[in-house]
Amino acid sequence: MKQIYHRFLFKNQVSELINLDKKIISETRKWIVLIIRNYEPKDLEEIIRLFKKTIFEINIADYDLAQVEAWSKVDKLSFNDNLLATKSRLVVNQDEIVGFGNIDDRGYIDLFYISADYQRQGVGQQLLKDLEKSSQALMFSVNSSITAKAFFEKMGYQELKQNLVYLRGQEFINYTLLKKAK
């Protein structure tokens, strides 16, 4: 499989107020180059750590402990097979994987996770755009968590329906969202 890399700049902006005679706002800008690349089986352990960490740090806001514990259980072989059978992309900062997602030939986005430290900074937007561009599908779909629903809506996805799903003895609400390809 041909390895494709995309680079983009990520801006972390910190503002501080300095009191002298006047109030002066100074900004410190830090630019980091992030790379989007294809998944490789050697990435599996780090991706699983990111997957679990994100669920426990971010999704816990919308789901209870029993739900996130059930959600975070992983069958490594099935997880790897899923990533290999789809277009699976990673966002990497130096040697650290900070996000990942995948899309199948029908335009279904199955996995989409961004590290808590990189959320709300454009990383997810870049990854989603990359996944959509890699697909020939006429329509994109995702079964989104409560937590990620607003993100997908911001990216042009529209809610089709609310779902009640069961996983490892736990009941979850998620949403099916659709977006027409451009």
From TrEMBL:
Keywords, sorted A to Z: Acyltransferase, Transferase
EC number(s) from the headed UniProt entry: 2.3.1.-
Signal peptide as annotated in the record: none
Keyword Cytoplasm: no
Pfam families: Acetyltransf_10 (PF13673)
Protein name in the entry: Putative acetyltransferase
Gene Ontology molecular function: acyltransferase activity, transferring groups other than amino-acyl groups
Keyword Transferase attributed: yes
Superkingdom of the source species: Bacteria
Domain annotation N-acetyltransferase: ranges: 34-182
EC class (word): transferase
